[in-house]
Q: What sequence folds into this?
């Protein structure tokens, strides 16, 4: 857990008049706990280990990507965080409250991976039902319903029954319901799995808007480009354990590649070439991987010094996908 | 509004939109029309004496209400068994239990909504049937209100059992087990009646134990008692019908009703505890 931030003590520039009791100093405002904190969280289903040891901290206001291949334990982890299943070991806090705390759920929006709403209710009725269960003031229901349905582009279908909705529209409705009541934490489990490209773009915009409003977003996804586009930090898990955690530059920082088009050097030179990083050659193109970007001019100089002609230098930032695969294959 | 009432309201609304009430009403209309025709024929028959008709009318009415109690129990099992299990399988519950409500409130809300539907069905059938039979044959059971109450209690009991099973079993398994338990309870009552008839202590004991293990048959006999005219309670009738599974010698005792209350609360409590502990 991150250390508590201390607040500045109150200043009393004019001092206290004689005879008047010294006012008690205003206690420092408690620093908000992380949105999500887990340490060694595990979950066993009989002999099956779904979650081996999950240790993550998600700070307030960030978009946190939770990545992993199918069966890595992502959804189990989300369910443990929300109290839907009990952990076998370890500890965790969500919004500073124990896992599954009922009152904390008031400030958590959740979009499950596999879910369904009552098909015979209209979208507006579903939203109203969840507004009631959230305990929102009755007077706020119409405005809140309009707001969330408009956000996901379902305002014109508010009175249509959910059973008539496509899977993508049901997913949009799920996101709308997750946004009800100004949540501090929104947990989205594969939010774009049923959406078309327009829907995916919309979801990205919604997540960005949430971040701008200070809401923490816990994004459970196996779509790496999605995480790459919108996440401040990510955790990669595999076989129930955390493999790597950090910001995208932290995860990718030392994994630059550069492609060079080189002519004029014989094959026998390439057979004994000594270049930094790992490199491979395909016809006139050479790809040097895992190279410190500051060494690229040295590589070019060496090639030119041996009589080569460097016709192009194309820097490549290794994709999250490549790094992701590297992390998983390295286990 | 309390979450229990909110969930009960949604449960009723969904049932109405599934045309469940409409189906209940259609079945009720068919049943009442058929029985009206039958009781009319029975009341007008010349093939038996007037005294025999007066004896046959209540017995026929009891048989009719037995058929209704079976339909009510079946309905209770059918609407109770998917209440939790289907919503777990479909993912509807995931969106509800992550709200700041207790799972107990969700379960009790569902129970309440379904119990209201059963009460409406029970009240409609009992009221219509009693009115129609009185109109066509002149027969009126001594206490139709208590008949309806006992039948409702029997239906609620089965609903509660089905709901408990629904927290752990699949839709089909929960429904089948609830109906089978109802059948087993009725069968235990028949075995007990045979034991009474042939004076076999072991069989009598089966009937007695069965009424405590699953009190649906005991409640059905409460309904029977309030369907029987006073003429049935005479000594001669007692001797002739001692082993008749469609005859009740006395109303259920207060002690038995207290036991039923405890049993009911225990099963409902077990359902809540089971749902609270269920991992989703």
A:
């Amino acid at each position: 857990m991150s250390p508590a931030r201390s607040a500045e003590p109150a200043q009393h520039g004019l001092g206290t008049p004689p005879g008047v009791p010294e006012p008690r100093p205003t206690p420092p405002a408690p620093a908000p706990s992380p949105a999500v904190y887990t340490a060694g969280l595990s979950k066993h289903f009989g002999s099956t280990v779904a979650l081996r040891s999950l240790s993550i901290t998600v700070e307030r206001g960030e978009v946190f990507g939770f990545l992993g291949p199918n069966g890595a334990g992502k959804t189990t982890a989300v369910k443990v965080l929300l109290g839907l299943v009990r952990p076998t070991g370890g500890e965790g806090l969500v919004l500073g409250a124990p896992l599954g705390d009922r009152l904390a759920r008031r400030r958590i929006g959740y979009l499950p991976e596999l879910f369904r709403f009552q098909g015979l209710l209209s979208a507006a009725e579903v939203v109203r039902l969840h507004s009631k269960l959230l305990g929102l003031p009755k007077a706020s229901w119409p405005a809140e319903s309009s707001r969330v349905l408009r956000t996901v582009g379902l305002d014109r279908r508010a009175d249509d029954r959910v059973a008539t909705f496509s899977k993508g529209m049901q997913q949009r409705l799920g996101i709308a319901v997750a946004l009800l009541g100004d949540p501090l934490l929104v947990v989205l489990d594969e939010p774009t799995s049923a959406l078309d490209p327009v829907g995916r773009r919309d979801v990205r915009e919604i997540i960005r808007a949430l971040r701008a409003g200070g809401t923490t977003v816990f994004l459970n996804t196996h779509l790496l480009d999605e995480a790459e586009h919108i996440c401040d930090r990510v955790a990669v898990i595999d076989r129930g354990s955390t493999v790597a955690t950090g910001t995208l530059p932290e995860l990718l920082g030392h994994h630059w590649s550069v492609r060079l088009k080189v002519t004029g050097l014989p094959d026998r030179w390439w057979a004994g070439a000594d270049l930094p990083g790992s490199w491979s050659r395909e016809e006139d193109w050479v790809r040097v991987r895992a190279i410190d970007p500051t060494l690229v001019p040295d590589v070019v100089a060496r090639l030119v010094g041996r009589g080569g002609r460097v016709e192009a230098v194309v820097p490549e930032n290794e994709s999250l996908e490549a790094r992701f695969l590297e992390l998983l294959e390295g286990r | 509004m309390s979450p229990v009432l909110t969930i009960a309201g949604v449960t009723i609304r969904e049932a109405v939109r599934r045309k469940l009430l409409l189906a209940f009403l259609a079945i009720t209309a068919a049943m009442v029309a058929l029985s009206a025709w039958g009781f009319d024929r029975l009341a007008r028959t010349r093939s038996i004496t007037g005294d025999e008709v007066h004896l046959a009318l209540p017995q026929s009415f009891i048989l009719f209400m037995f058929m209704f109690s079976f339909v009510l129990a079946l309905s209770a099992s059918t609407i109770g068994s998917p209440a939790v299990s289907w919503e777990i399988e479909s993912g509807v519950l995931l969106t509800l239990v992550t709200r700041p409500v207790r799972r107990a409130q969700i379960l009790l809300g569902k129970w309440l909504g379904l119990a209201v539907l059963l009460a409406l069905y029970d009240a409609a059938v009992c009221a219509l049937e009693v009115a129609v039979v009185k109109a066509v044959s002149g027969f009126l059971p001594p206490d139709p209100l208590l008949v309806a109450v006992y039948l409702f209690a029997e239906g609620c009991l089965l609903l509660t059992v089905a709901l408990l099973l629904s927290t752990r079993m699949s839709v089909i398994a929960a429904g089948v087990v609830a109906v089978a338990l109802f059948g087993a309870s009725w069968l235990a009552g028949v075995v007990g009646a045979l034991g009474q008839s042939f004076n076999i202590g072991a069989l009598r004991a089966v009937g007695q134990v069965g009424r405590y293990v699953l009190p649906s048959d005991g409640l059905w006999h409460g309904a029977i008692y309030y369907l029987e005219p006073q003429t049935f309670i005479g000594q001669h009738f007692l001797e002739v019908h001692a082993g008749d599974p469609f005859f009740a010698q006395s109303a259920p005792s207060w002690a038995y009703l207290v036991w039923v209350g405890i049993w009911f609360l225990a099963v409902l409590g077990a359902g809540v505890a089971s749902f609270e502990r269920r991992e989703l």
Notes: Chain A has two domains: 36-250, 253-329.
